[in-house]
Each structure stands twice: as C-alpha cells, then as structure tokens.
Design brief:
CATH class of one domain: Alpha Beta
Low-confidence stretches: 1-15, 75-116, 609-623
Protein name: SpoIIE family protein phosphatase
Largest sheet: 6 strands, antiparallel
Keywords: Hydrolase
Helix content: 25-40%
Radius of gyration: 36 Å
Structural class: alpha+beta
InterPro entries: ANTAR, Bact_Sigma-Reg, PAS-assoc_C, PAS-like_dom_sf, PPM-type-like_dom_sf, PPM-type_phosphatase-like_dom, WH-like_DNA-bd_sf
Organism: Paractinoplanes globisporus
Strand order of the largest sheet: 11-12-21-20-17-18
Oligomer: single chain
Pfam family, one: SpoIIE
CATH architecture of one domain: 4-Layer Sandwich
Shape: elongated
Number of helices: 18
C-alpha cells in the first residue's frame, strides 16, 4: 500500500518539459523516420540524406526536417494499409510474441494466436549473428519428441558434419546425428518444449571441438543457439561476423599457381554453392550488366597501371540486379607485374537502392512543392505591388513556412465595397494541404460574396462562423480564425471585429501598440456566436497591420516575445520611411516562420497627393 501510494503521488508531479535541444532532436528524428519510411531505406541512410539536403540548400537541418514532416506526415487513414509489414516489425513480432501453449482468451480487438511463420523467422535469422537455428518438432501421440527438423538457420550456422547455412534446412537430426535421440540433450529439448523455460547444455565435447547449446521455445518448435569454444572457432566467428556486418567477402587469386580462394560470405553474395568453387572468368563476365562494360574496362586499365581499384558495378544474379563494390590490389614483381591479386567485394545494393529511392522522394517533394506553389497562386493571388483604394493604400505579403511545405490555410481579402468603403480581412485555417486550402478558399470567397449584402464586420464574421460550423461537421479537425475591418474614407474611421485572431497593430505618431480586441470566439466553435465590433479613428500618418499568428509565434520564442519583436520592427520601419512606410514594413518583416505560414496586410490612409509616383514615371521610361 505505501508503494502504491508513492507511485500515485509521483504520477501527479509535473513532467519536466523537454529542453529546446531535445525538442529539436526529436523533430529531426521524426523527419528521418518519415523519410526512411517513404523511401523504404535504412534510417541511417535517411539521416545522411537529410543532412546532405540541408547542406545543398544551405539551410538548417531542423528547417529541412520540419519541411519533410509537413510533407510526409499524413494521418493513418491516408496511409496504404496494403503495404507489407517492415522488417523491424517482423523481428519484434517473432521475438516478443508468447508461445501458443494454450487457448487464447478473447479480447475486444481480434488478436491472432502466434504461429511461427517460417519465412518471417528466416528473415530474422538472416540478420542474426552467430550460429542459430529454428527446428520444428515431430512428436508421438504422447507428446514425446520423435525427431527435430531444421526449418530456418543463420548464415553462419554450421554443424560438426560440415554442413553450413541453408544446407541444413530440411535435414533431420536423427539422420544427421543418429546418436542424438539417446543423448541427454534430447531430454533437455523435451523439457524446453513442454515448459517453455529456456535451458542450456554444456560446455560438452563433440568430435574435436567443445560446444555450448542454448534452447528456447518459439511457437511449437525450438530456437537453438550454439557456440564453439576452441580458438579456431572463435577466430572464424570473428571473421564471419565482420563479413556479415559489412555484407562483404574477400578473395585471393594466385596468378603463379592459378589457385583461387573465396571466403564464405563471398559465396553468399554471389548466391553460389561453395562446392562449385569460385566463378570462372567467363561465368563472372556473363553476370555483368552490359551497360557497365566501359566502367569495368577503365578499372582494368587502372589496375594495369599498378593502381588500386575501387569500383562499383552491377551484376545480375538470380533474376535480380546487385550493386557490388570491389576494392582490389596486387602483390607485384619488380617489373610491376601482378603475382597475387587480393580484394574485397561488398554488396552495396541496399545502399544504392536507398540512394535511388531517396532521390526519387526528393524529386517528388520538389514536384509537389512546385504544384503547391501554383495552387497557392491560383487560390490566393498576391498583388505585384501596393493596392490603391480611395483614401487608402494596402500592401500584402505572404511568407510560406518553408520551401517543402504544402499550400497553407492563411488568406487575406482587400476589396472596395459598393458604398465606397474598403473591406480588409486576414484569416488563418489550421493545417496545410488540400483540406486547409479548400477551407481557406471557401471562407475567402464567401466573405467577398457576403460583402455584397452587408459591410458590417461583426455580421460578416457571424455568417462565416455559420459556414465554418457546417464545414466542421464534414471535417471535425477544422479550426479557423479571422479579423475583418471596414474602412470608411468619409469618416476616416475603421470598424472591425475578430474571431479568435491575434490583435491588429496600430502605428500612430511613431509608436506601435496592439488594439484591444472585442470579444469573439474562433470560427466554427459556437453555432450562434455573436461578434461585437469596435471603432478606430484612422488618420493620415497611421498604419494598421493585420497578420496571422505565424508572424509572432515561433518554436524558439514565446508569443509575447514575437509580438514585441514585430512592434519594434514596425517602429523602426516607420521611423526609417515615414512617408512610404508600407514597403519598409513588409521588407523588414520578411523572415519566414519555419513552423507556420504568415500572411501580413498593412494599410495606411492617403490623400490624392500621396499617390505612387511610379504611375507618372512609366510614360517617361517608355520614351
């Protein structure tokens, strides 16, 4: 009871928030995982590729990682569930699932009984070091073992009778070792199968060597691991382990005697029976991909010049193409003629395939980014310069979160109404991609259409809210904010309302402040929400800034710090160019937020004397 109480109290203590470094590392790891999953490559290869992308683009790896996450992190419902299970999942399932010793109790979700799947077990053993094998048991009516049959083995598995690896599969222990059923080891295997408790035998001597065997129950069979303890066996295991880890083999060719030697793993790379001996020159040439002939000739010419060769070529083995890296050198006589050639052959097929798949993913990301850019320009066209209305000049800037990001949900509206007033608005739909872009377009165009019937910002937001509530029924994750303002040039006044949006900034007399927001919930939260309005005198010299939260929210600082920075930037811009502040403001607020898109709309009252002089200069330039 005291222990349970202590654990309960401990669970109520706040968990310390991760440090900035830990959070950034988690983002990079998540991006690497997504990239490896999409490319179906190793995580290490995906990590190297992400760093290379960052170096090529001269960007922070964290920035690239955020872009990859935004592009590739899709919901489970959007994934293709028909894809095969990954190797790590298979390994986990094979080694952690309990043996099926009795009936499985029903659970709310359908759960299969664990049955050894030989193909899966073999895939696990293919990457398992040492000598290990899975044997199925043949039993009599009382459950006693009659025989054990090799069903799956590691590449390094060998038995004292000289059989190795796949040569063991299908062999019966009783025919391979006739005395085995009468030995004490048989009783140990029986006990492991009956109880499920692992056991070990040895060390014991068999023939000229000493062995230790460890047995585990796996499903209805035995998983055996055995070790040879003599020095030669240990050295052989070390060499075999090195070859396995590097997926490489080595060979020598004595040009004087004509003798050729291949290591065991070199036979595995070429998928050749060791009893057939090394490949002949003609057999090796027949495996080569014809397109690599110039590369092979260049390597042979370099070798003739007494240069060490390091070349990667392709061979066709068993209907598949493998990429093999060959590093070769020679012992030469005083004239430079080779006497003995020795080399290492490494199977780099996975690495080459990883690089190809990663390049394909990168190309697709670039294509999707280009498509997203075109879609962004279609849905949210941005003006080439300032927009001039009667008594008002407006400038707009859109800052995408990153080069890999999909089209976002930030939007603006600036249009003249029938009564001569000007409608200004900025909104933000959470998320990226097609759903956010679709909602953004619906709200933006709905606002323009509704403005034909009324210019009251509070009424317009109420109607947008009802529309968002309808859309939310189709997309429960939908959330949006907006601020709507109407400028009356006759009264020099702004009437505005907001729906859960960051407060606008007002620059007046060289000092920028936030406006006190009238009440107003986010769009789509309350069906019959009411949005009160506020009035603001807007005189010559004032500047109004509407923006989305990407301007002030950042993963490396709080919102208050971001807002303070934006206020300082507007103050500096107005001080630097009091007569033409809009261009200065947008130029200084050009730093994109890697986490979110940013839409900025800046407006200032003007008189007829402050029109853009470019309209008068263009005829002169034409001359």
């Amino acid at each position: 009871m005291p222990r349970a109480y202590a654990e309960a109290v401990s669970s109520l203590r706040p968990v310390p928030a991760p440090t900035a470094a830990e959070a950034e590392r988690a983002i990079v790891e998540r991006a690497v995982g997504l990239l490896a999953g999409r490319a179906r490559c190793r995580v290490a290869e995906a990590h190297r590729h992400l760093l290379r992308m960052a170096a090529d683009q001269r960007r922070d790896p964290l920035e690239v990682a955020n872009g990859v996450i935004r592009m590739l992190d899709v919901s489970e419902s959007a994934t293709d569930r028909s894809q095969p299970v990954s190797v790590p999942q298979l390994v986990t399932a094979a080694l952690t699932a309990p043996a099926a010793a009795g009936p499985v109790k029903p659970k709310p979700a359908a759960v299969r009984r664990f049955e050894p799947w030989l193909a899966m077990v073999q895939r696990v053993l293919d990457v398992t070091p040492g000598m290990c094998g899975y044997l199925t048991a043949e039993r009599d009516g009382t459950g006693r073992i009659l025989d054990l049959v090799w069903a799956a083995v590691t590449p390094e598995a060998s038995t004292p009778d000289g059989l190795r690896g796949a040569q063991l599969i299908g062999r019966r222990i009783s025919t391979q070792f006739p005395s085995a059923p009468d030995s004490g080891r048989w009783e140990v295997y029986q006990g492991v199968l009956d109880t499920g408790c692992p056991d070990a035998i040895g060390p014991f001597r068999f023939g000229d060597a000493v062995y230790t065997v460890r047995a585990h129950r796996l499903g209805h069979g035995l998983l055996l691991n055995w070790t040879r303890h003599d020095e030669a066996g240990r050295e052989s295991n070390r060499v075999a382990g090195t070859e396995r880890l590097g997926n490489l083999g080595w060979g020598e060719w004595d040009l004087v005697s004509g003798e050729i030697f291949w290591s065991e793993h070199l036979y595995r790379i070429y998928e050749r029976d060791p009893r057939l001996g090394p490949l002949s020159r003609s057999e090796s040439d027949a495996l080569a991909v014809p397109e690599d002939a110039p590369l092979i000739r260049a390597a042979l010419e370099a070798f003739d010049r007494a240069t060490q060769v390091d070349v990667t070529t392709r061979v066709r083995i068993g209907g598949r193409v493998k990429h093999l890296r060959t590093v070769a050198d020679a012992v030469r006589d005083t004239a430079g003629r080779p006497l003995r050639i020795y080399g290492i052959v490494q199977d780099v097929t996975e690495r080459e395939n990883d690089a190809r798949r990663l390049a394909e993913v990168e190309r697709r990301l670039a294509d999707e980014h280009e498509l997203a850019g075109r879609l962004q320009r279609i849905i949210l066209p941005l003006p080439d310069g300032p927009i001039e209305f009667p008594g008002l000049k407006v400038a707009v800037r859109y800052l995408p979160a990153g080069r890999e990001t999909l089209v976002g949900g930030d939007w603006y509206q600036a249009t003249r109404l029938r009564d001569g007033s000007v409608l200004l608005a900025v909104g933000d739909v959470a998320g990226h991609g097609t759903p956010a872009a679709t909602t953004m377009a619906q709200l933006r165009h709905a606002l323009r259409a509704l403005a034909v019937t009324t210019g009251d910002p509070g009424v317009l937001l109420g109607q947008l809210n009802r529309l968002t509530c309808e859309l939310e029924r189709e997309n429960p994750e939908l959330s949006a904010t907006a601020v709507v303002a109407r400028f009356d040039p006759n009264r020099q006044e702004i009437l505005w309302a907001q729906a859960g949006h960051p407060p606008p900034l007002l620059s007046r007399d060289g000092r920028t402040t936030t406006l006190d927001r009238p009440a107003g919930p986010m769009l789509g939260v309350v069906d019959d929400a009411v949005y009160p309005t506020a009035r603001l005198p807007f005189r010559i010299g004032d500047v109004l800034l509407l923006y989305t939260d990407g301007l002030v929210e950042h993963r490396r600082r709080g919102m208050d710090d971001g807002l303070a920075q934006a206020i300082r930037t507007v103050d500096e811009a107005v001080a630097a160019s009091p007569q033409q502040p809009l261009a200065q403001i947008l130029a200084r607020l050009r730093q994109a937020n890697p986490d979110d898109d940013t839409c900025i709309l800046a407006a200032r009252p003007v008189t007829g004397e402050t029109r853009d002089l470019r309209h008068h200069l263009m005829p002169l330039r034409a001359r």
